[in-house]
Amino acid sequence: MTIAALTSADTAALEFYQENVAYVDGFGLTNLDRPERLLFKKGRQLMEAALAAAKAPTRELYSDAEVVFLVQTYLASGADMQATRSAYFRQFPEASHSASSVWMKVSRIRTLDTEFATDTEWQTDAQVESICRALDAERFGF
Q1: C-alpha distances in Å from residue 47, one per residue of 10, 12, 29, 51
Q2: Could you say which of 30, 81, 99, 114 is the most buried, measured as most Cβ atoms within 10 Å of its Cβ?
């Protein structure tokens, strides 16, 4: 939930929670009337949700251009996975992806490669599948 998505009731609940959290910590909820307890609870839930969202790790997704580059390099290098990974870091030196992450993306490409049918099968993703299909449907078994 973003700040723009907060209703006036949500804002009131958050304000009530912040104003009364020390009081409730000291004396408990029983000293509040039922409507105030409900308002406090709603404010606490909103605050906890906001804190959980702030702590949630963000994943850096691959752009389509990055995956197209990986597939094209993989094909041009004769399915050399290490060369593909090295070329990726030369092409995208500022990329935030780790070497292991790029290796897994290349492994997903290899999973679809019909020339390596006995290779370990990794779980693929829709982005890799659609780009492999677009670049060489026959090679990748589509």
Answers
A1: 10, 12, 17, 6
A2: 81
List C-alpha distances in Å: 32 to 9, 10, 20, 47, 72. 18, 19, 10, 19, 65
Nearest partner of 24 among 2, 39, 9, judged by Cα = 39
Residue type at position 52: A
The per-residue DSSP string of 69-89 comes to: HHHHHHHHTTS-HHHHHHHHH
Report pTM: 0.57
Flag whether pLDDT at 59 surpasses 90. no
Amino acid identity at 121: E
Q: How many CA atoms lie within 13 A of 74 on its CB side?
A: 28
| pLDDT of residue 64 exceeding 70 | yes
Q: Which two tokens stand for residue 79?
A: 């399915």
Q: How far apart are CA 17 and CA 127, in angstroms?
A: 43
